[in-house]
């Protein structure tokens, strides 16, 4: 299943697993354009073509998709192209994807009246979430000298997940700071630095380690703007990978969004695609509020086209992944892909789910969600948080409070089980929501 | 009226100053010896002799008298239930605040724990702001939303005011990091107590400060009691100035304002060149830990009165002034009366100050401008005008003038999910 946009008629495809090949026999038709209820957008809103063919178990293999449209050569040629991109002008190099360029022009068929910036040459490189985050980070560091990064192994090592690779050699050791293993204090240090006007980005090697910094995040990060009567602002970004990985064990598979969500004064966002990873990273850095950016360990290698132009996303907005009529499925981060896989099955069964990636975990984008609920009257929330006290629980309460009259059925919230994540692979699979469960839940809801 | 409530930096506005200026004493330097020599760890201690001026002596006296008066007044306000919650009083420790201020500028940062009223005053806070904040009024330094433990003064370089023991130390190292980052030749004084000296975050922060040569000065205000626990019962090694190991330390008599001043000056020079240093201020608090603690269950009244008689900081300055003939007893008494009047007036004014508006409940939770604020000056274009151009034209336009096109997914000045400024309403 893919993410759709009415502007796109050609699509790239990145299969994410060797285990589940997509159904090639019925390539789904391009979706009809749907009338977006217009929020007050600037007339400059341009959607980027980002179609991803997904399945579960998100190991990335770039494939050569033999469609009538075009080839994408991944890996070797692309990464070299990406590495050349040290400055913006170099990004326009075409050598990496020469073959693609021919086919792109051949296949471009943008809707009349709307130009899709993505389809005009030079060709857009394909990057994964790691690269998207790195690009966003680098662009912001270039733009504002006050932006600095601190975390464990971010400097010389290049980042434990390589998000900050190359930045230390470019910007120096003080701007990309390798800290000792002292989460509480280096988060506190970042907050202190933010009080004076710097814009630090704190990387938690794994979100779970940030539990050690909870005091600093809750008291000093979230509340300082309030308790000082507005004198100090904390423009900090705290980011890191979290979520259930591939048999990483209980302590390294935590979902901290549920613990942080009550802290007043912070904003939380979760990225799920390279496009929104870069946009949200930039928005978070530019925001004057403390922002916690949740990434997912398993999504780092997910590839997609990233626009060349600079773009910044709105931190509080949700993303309409697939418009539909029958049921609203709210999700975020990795569960988006499980949902999209389930949606494929559901479409084949005749349902028309509307999938929204809520992206903003605090505050919720009740505007987009509300419009969707008013249209479909049924809600399924699919999340990776625990059942008790997770994001889904808050979202359920929020939707019930605000849109109760529009609901035809109780909200179904599918979350992870309230257990520590086991090591054994099969057990681990059962702690998180699987596409089959989503399909079953939707079927039951829409009966 | 406002001036009367301001803490005056010079004595010109007071009667005693008028008398003193006729004596032409303000400029001739005086050398004062500190009460005890400094004890040093891994460093050569500074000398015991401190240069000072009569002006400074009188200023010290007045400032400390003001601080003492403020704390006593806060005590009675608390007992009459105008101040609620926690109230941690600083009387007895004034020399640390005053001595430190004399050695540094407002560009240097100070961050401390919850015993912050007097340091706030030293950094340029006014009595009105302090009392109004204590009473939870709108005119308080944090608009009444912080309370006793959350005094801040951004212009004065005072970063608070923190309730969680020890959490301000990493923040202080962060301030020092920012100073090093911007290369502005200032230092940060991160203050904590003997109770907080056993916190892990102190050592973590110290390690990082030493590793990166941050201009951080960690000041341990050792008043020998961590709430109700004496230091010998809480710490295996009560030599807090030695705890830095590889970080040099200095033990200072915290009841002697000049020793504090000398040490802080020395520390500032050291920190700018060589990185962090620990100062242990040996001081004492007369009140209990907070207003709910009588302060006599874990120490004897004799001990308290003994310290008051022998080591009181204000008494020490008074003796110095009298011995150097800088003012008469009567003049000092007049200063005290004036200070008392100032404090009373500030309290009266603070009592008149209104309580915060209910809408203030929701302000300052987030910085206004949720999400991304467009920096229009950077773009040098009004985005609304761009709707006239097609995308290609705009691209050409931008590439010509070497601007990057900011493709924004949605209007970035939304304040809340409903795209309207959040207006929360109380039930």
**Major β-sheet profile of chain B:** 6 strands, mixed
Fraction in beta strands of chain B: 5-15%
Q: Tell me, what's the shape of chain A?
A: globular
**What value does the Rg of chain B take, in angstroms?**
25 Å
Q: Round the mean pLDDT of chain A to the nearest integer and report it.
A: 78
Number of domains of chain A: 3
Quaternary structure state of the chains depicted: heterodimer
Order of the strands making up the biggest sheet of chain B = 2-9-10-6-5-4
Domain Transketolase-like pyrimidine-binding (chain A): 127-302
Biased composition (Polar residues) (chain A): 101-110
Enzyme class (chain A): oxidoreductase
EC number (chain A): 1.2.4.1
Question: Quick recap of the structure?
Answer:
Chain A: It comes from Rehmannia glutinosa. The complex is a heterodimer of chains A (447) and B (427). With 447 residues, chain A is an alpha/beta fold.
Describe the structure.
Chain A: It catalyses: N(6)-[(R)-lipoyl]-L-lysyl-[protein] + pyruvate + H(+) = N(6)-[(R)-S(8)-acetyldihydrolipoyl]-L-lysyl-[protein] + CO2. The complex is a heterodimer of chains A (447) and B (427). Chain A is an alpha/beta fold and 447 residues long. Chain A has helices spanning 76-83, 98-107, 129-143, 167-171, 183-196, 214-227, 257-260, 274-286, 335-348, 366-376, 391-403, 425-431, 435-445, and strands at residues 126-128, 147-151, 176-178, 199-203, 237-242, 267-270, 291-296, 303-305, 310-312, 319-322, 327-331, 353-357, 360-362, 379-386, 412-416. Chain A folds into three domains: 3-10 and 34-90, no CATH class; 100-304, 3-Layer(aba) Sandwich (Rossmann fold), CATH 3.40.50.970; 320-445, 3-Layer(aba) Sandwich (Rossmann fold). Chain A has 13 helices and 15 strands. Chain B has helices at residues 2-5, 15-21, 54-79, 94-103, 117-122, 127-134, 168-181, 200-211, 231-234, 257-274, 301-311, 313-323, 329-352, 376-379, 391-400; strands at 30-33, 39-41, 49-52, 109-111, 188-193, 216-222, 225-226, 229-230, 249-253, 277-282, 406-408. In chain B, helix 6 packs across helix 13 (329-352) and helix 7 packs parallel to helix 8 (200-211). At the A-B interface, helix 5, helix 6, helix 8, strand 9 and helix 10 of A face helix 7, helix 8, helix 15 and strand 11 of B.
